[in-house]
């Protein structure tokens, strides 16, 4: 593929992010990082499977690739779902609040929308963490010539998780259920800490 055709094939996602609109924003970009991480992992699986010296792990490599395809597809969906969840929050805050009934309905709508704005990035974090775990395994059985690609993928997966963490936490303060908010924060913080360790383990294999 030529440099020009590669550039032309990138699509307009970056332009959409750069536009002066609230969405797609950081949550969608985080999910896209997860997609790229999964895609790089698939590439490494493919080029390793083609090498006879890795025949003993070919079955596992195919399983890892299949899982990365599945996770990448879900993360692609989350790019749009995250943007839609933020739009829903904006829409809820625009609801009328003149009467007591309207205020009550608006408050309930806001809480429902906020939960959606938490759920989307939280799933991005979970799916990206699954990608990262597979990359950690791939770093040990894939061809060493593509280890740098696995390391890049691991960093992208970590960025996806941390970016999702930011987007979850910014909405937690608006949750009425403070106990649920606290539990959610603890759960995603644990994912972030584990992701840092796992990505560092992949990087350590580079022996830079």
How would you describe the overall organization of this protein?
The protein has seven helices and no strands. By secondary structure, it is mainly α.
Class derived from helix and strand content: mainly alpha
Order of helices and strands: HHHHHHH
Radius of gyration: 20 Å
Number of strand segments:
0
Number of helices: 7
Q: Averaging pLDDT over every residue, what do you get?
A: 94
What spatial form do the alpha-carbon principal axes imply?
Answer: elongated
Q: Which percent band covers the strand fraction?
A: under 5%
Q: How far is the first residue's CA from the last residue's CA?
A: 30 Å
Largest sheet: none
Which assembly state applies to the chains in this document?
A: single chain
Quick structural gist:
With 208 residues, the protein is mainly α.
Topology record:
Elements: H1 3-8, H2 13-18, H3 26-49, H4 58-93, H5 100-141, H6 147-172, H7 178-204
Characteristic terms for this protein:
mainly alpha; 7 helices
